[in-house]
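Appendix B, record 7
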Amino acid sequence: MTTQTYRFGTDAAGGHGNWLLKYAAPQNFFPLAGKLVPWVAALAAVLALAGLYVGFFVAPTDFQQGEVYRIIFLHVAASWMSMFIYCIMAGWAALGLILNTRLSGMMAKALAPTGAMFTFIALWSGSLWGKPTWGTWWVWDARLTSELILLFLYFGFIALTSAIDDARRADRAGALLAIVGVINIPIIYFSVQWWNTLHQGASVSLTRSPSMALTMLVGMLLMALAAWMYSIAVALWRVRSIILERERDAEWVRQLREQE
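Structure tokens (predicted):
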């Protein structure tokens, strides 16, 4: 496979540049993503197993909620990732809109399905927790409703970018939707403070000590890290497919296929 040669710390024109610019080109990012995927995926699996073990076998039973509280080890990680991935997706989309970089739109598109999956898991696991705790599967609570809107934003982004044949136009349209939708993220996060809701407040905060046992906190953080590593692995795997699809007529892709 023939690619343009770069030196660390310099760009193609010979001037001083950021090494990250090298990987802004899809043909350079493609092999890097392929090398990272198995390592990040393995780390995700190890963290998930450790988190599930701590959460379901080591962490003590909650004195108020009993055993049903253990669903938080899945629910909290999924909720955090649903918001975090949307912010990263919108960031990539905005970067592509401002700098007109091809890889940015591809990364945003690669992240959207994983974000939608975690949002669905957050809503589903929240319903499983809500039935024994609140006595109902669903209430039009501010936190739940804004999280449901987030799921619709993911679906809208996926549908919009898939409906437009021209990839660059699709990226621009999706970027506008993603950027506008960011306003929903602080609404989700602060909803329990701004409105009188059934949803409990945050158990983990940067401004105060956690209101849970240390083993509970460790299990929750392990699951959050596992979800983070999983998201990176899947996004990198998916973006490789998107790169091959969009760059299928490029010389480097043809040479890559000839070598297979």
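Remarks on this record: The helical segments are 26-58, 72-99, 102-134, 142-163, 167-181, 184-194, 214-246, 251-259. Residues 74-202 form one domain.
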